[in-house]
Design brief:
The structure is a single chain. With about 180 residues, the protein is α+β, with helices and mostly antiparallel strands. Helices cover about 25% and strands about 25% of the residues. Strands 1, 2, 3, 4, 5 and 6 form a 6-stranded antiparallel β-sheet that branches. The N and C termini lie far apart (about 70 Å). The model has no long low-confidence stretch (mean pLDDT about 75).
């Protein structure tokens, strides 16, 4: 911790009797702050250089699954292949498809005795499976559209769903 104390100095004596100029005494506190200022400046320069060279988000693990939350309320899951200040490239991409119950069931759950209102069903979908435009399994997402990125646990429901999807895909005969 650095503490500062107010130092008082006595007025400088007037011209010496020999007619020479007077000398003033330097405060020792001025020399103590100089190394701190130099160290702080060096840290700022190194940190700023690292930030601009690596880009924002350079510390995101690229080998693990991440959840990327976008400004349009969509969430994509995948592995980050590239991340810089302009974009994030996501590979092995999955997303959730929400299946709403049919309107008849949702409007009248009492029609069948003992029936409960059905909740929406979530399906984990692989990008490129079933979309009519046939996208590749890669997305380039503009940084301005990303709210935040979260790492996913290996034992989480999404990562386990991805693993089940891959196991089923390998078990299917090749066409």
């Amino acid at each position: 911790m650095v503490t500062f104390s107010q130092q008082t100095t006595s007025p400088a004596p007037s011209m010496a009797t020999a007619g020479g100029p007077t000398t003033t005494k330097r405060r020792s506190g001025d020399n103590k702050l100089l190394p701190l200022v130099v160290v702080a400046a060096v840290i700022l320069v190194i940190g700023g250089g690292y930030y601009f060279l690596k880009g924002r988000g350079g510390g995101i693990a690229s080998g693990e699954y991440q959840a990327v939350f976008l400004t349009n309320d969509q969430v994509y899951f995948g592995k980050i292949a590239k991340s810089n200040s302009d974009e994030v490239v996501l590979k092995d991409v999955f997303y959730l498809l929400i299946r709403q119950p049919t309107q008849v069931q949702a409007q009248n759950p009492e029609a069948t005795p003992g029936a409960q209102a059905q909740q929406p069903r979530y399906e984990l979908r692989h990008l490129g499976d079933g979309e009519p435009h046939g996208p590749l399994d890669e997305m380039s997402i503009n940084r301005d559209q990303i709210l935040f990125i979260e790492p996913l646990r290996e034992n989480g429901m999404v990562v386990q769903g991805i693993q089940r999807y891959k196991e089923q895909k390998q078990a299917q005969p090749q066409e």
